[in-house]
Write a structure and sequence with these properties.
The chain is an alpha/beta fold. It is built from 16 helices and 18 strands. Strand 3 (about 115) and strand 4 (about 120-125) form a beta hairpin.
């Protein structure tokens, strides 16, 4: 599960009609949900298989599956071999299973990039550094100072919208933890033109940050131009030396030390002057590419087999870092997202055992680059091997192996009648002891933070199955032995039954018109 919001531009309208929601309260198709063939297929989704496959994907030998890396390529080849062994056909035009997308090297051009405010010109490297990701462009806007880290009020969101935001951290905070990162993302979601986090590091630590932050980084190899850099309308998130922030605030009677003491409390927003930010990048194409895995089970109905239910999960994680106290340097990503990747493979295997496949075809997609900004799913959505308008639904599994044993959050239920279909399927299978519940964290905006979003913005109704984060999220302790594989198998069976229901219904899923207008048309 990525911690980076990715904002897509206006989406092309998909050929999916938008109608008022109608609740289908009919009994779930008994032929598909009560037949021995279907029940036997569901039983192939087992705890033992989940444990074995997560153990492969999240093994140390995969090196944390960074995008790009040899371990990620190994994972893709292994997943493709599993799907091939099941008898599925490769989803690429030539019948192969692996789609590759281009990458670029990107770095900030420090000589041509700057921040100008209050008569001061701040330089990249000396005063300003990237905090997360890269962006390119020029934006002049008012600057506001924010302290605190709670929820933003509606009025505060309006104050932030369209403005550069400098964030003062509490005095005792050495860096950006998970809670603070969520707050920074909330500022970005509120429409901030940029987010600049004050950093009081000493000279040695700042120099170390500069060496790391200004070194060339891998980026997706498309989407450049129009002043938007490699990230579309991605809002710059930067760090600014506290001493440099103090220089541009001189004359505004703002006490940064007092704000740092206040910063652990309720949010406060202070107006200051104007700020002009200019970021210029240097890019070059790389010879390296990154993989997606695509497999298809053809549908059994001559008329509906040209429509697809898409299952997706991301294979990648965040790679290798500095060793911890135990010498562990590998971020294994067992829950994020070996669990969701395994769910897709398990459902594929169950579908492949059916004597009669669903009427619609099933497309199984394992993507990479999710942790970098939903790269693989964006590439597939823009370069899909089947027409986007033929995709009737996307069921995305990202982190399904931890937390509560009897519930799984299904994000997006309210946006289409897939929510009612899921409720119907859920009620038909009490033996799963698994209830799909509504989004528990709407303020976190997880709907925009995993691979389903790239399908939703193209007009494909989606559901995102997600058990929430935990203390091991993006940590070295997200290990296979911590996965509740029994729970994960029950979730796998639930999304299998859901895909069967969608695949066999006469009508394709329909959007809520208001959601379609906001997510697809806007």
């Amino acid at each position: 599960m990525t911690t980076t919001y990715f904002f897509a531009g206006p989406a092309a309208a998909a050929a999916i009609s938008v109608v008022m929601l109608s609740v289908d309260v009919s009994t779930v198709d008994a032929q598909m949900h009560g037949s021995p063939d279907v029940e036997a297929a569901a039983r192939t989704i087992s705890q033992a298989d989940f444990a074995r496959r997560i153990g492969v994907i999240a093994h140390d030998s995969m090196g944390g599956r960074d995008t790009p890396s040899p371990g990620l390529d190994m994972t893709a080849e292994w997943a493709a071999s599993e799907l091939r062994r099941m008898g599925l056909r490769g989803g690429m035009p030539d019948g192969s299973f692996i789609q590759r997308y281009p990458l670029r090297s990107v770095e900030v051009d420090v000589d041509r990039s700057s921040v100008v405010s209050g008569g001061e010109r701040l330089r990249y490297g000396r005063d300003i550094l990237p905090l997360f990701g890269f962006a390119e462009g020029e934006a002049g806007a008012d600057l506001v100072i924010v302290s605190g880290s709670g929820n933003l009020s509606r009025g505060q969101r309006q104050e932030i919208d369209g403005r550069h935001v400098a964030v003062v951290l509490p005095r005792d905070v050495a860096g950006v933890d998970r809670q603070m990162f969520g707050f920074l993302n909330a500022l970005r979601q509120a429409g901030a033109a940029s987010v600049l986090v004050a950093n009081s590091a000493d000279d040695d630590q700042w120099a170390a940050n500069a060496r790391r932050s200004l070194s060339p980084s891998v980026s997706k190899g498309w989407g450049f131009g129009e002043g938007q850099g490699n990230t579309g309308s991605f809002t710059p998130m930067l760090q600014i030396r506290t001493s440099a922030l103090a220089r541009i605030l001189s004359g505004h009677d703002i006490d940064l030390e007092a704000l740092a003491r206040h910063a652990g409390r309720d949010v406060e927003v202070l107006d200051t002057g104007e700020l002009l930010m200019t970021i210029v990048q240097r890019t070059r194409d790389m010879q390296v590419t990154a993989p997606n895995v695509v497999a298809i089970l053809d549908g059994s109905d001559p008329e509906l087999r040209d429509e697809y239910v898409v299952y997706s999960g991301h294979m990648d994680h965040v790679g290798i870092g500095a060793p911890d106290a135990n010498g562990d340097s590998i971020f294994n990503g067992a829950d994020d997202d070996a669990s969701g990747t395994t769910a897709v493979i398990e459902v594929a295997e169950a579908m492949a055992t059916l004597s009669t496949p669903p009427k619609r075809s099933m497309l199984f997609l394992l993507v990479s680059g999710e942790e970098k900004g939903l790269w693989g799913s964006e590439w597939f959505a823009e370069n899909s091997t089947v027409p986007v308008e033929s995709m009737v639904a996307n069921l995305n599994t990202d982190m399904v192996g931890r937390n509560w044993p009897d519930t799984i959050v299904a994000i997006g239920k309210e946006h289409s009648d897939l929510g009612e279909t899921l409720n119907t399927v859920n009620e038909a299978h009490p033996e799963l002891r698994m209830t799909a519940i509504d989004d528990l964290w709407p303020d976190e905006r997880f709907y925009f933070r995993s691979d389903h979003y790239n399908f939703a913005r193209k007009g494909v109704p989606v559901l995102f199955f997600f058990n929430g984060t935990h203390d091991d999220y993006h940590g070295r302790d997200d290990e296979p032995e911590r996965i509740d594989t029994e729970k994960a198998a029950r979730i796998g069976r639930l999304v299998f039954y859901l895909g069967m229901e969608i695949g066999n219904r006469t009508e394709r899923p329909q959007w809520n018109p208001e959601s379609y207008a906001r997510i697809v048309s806007d």
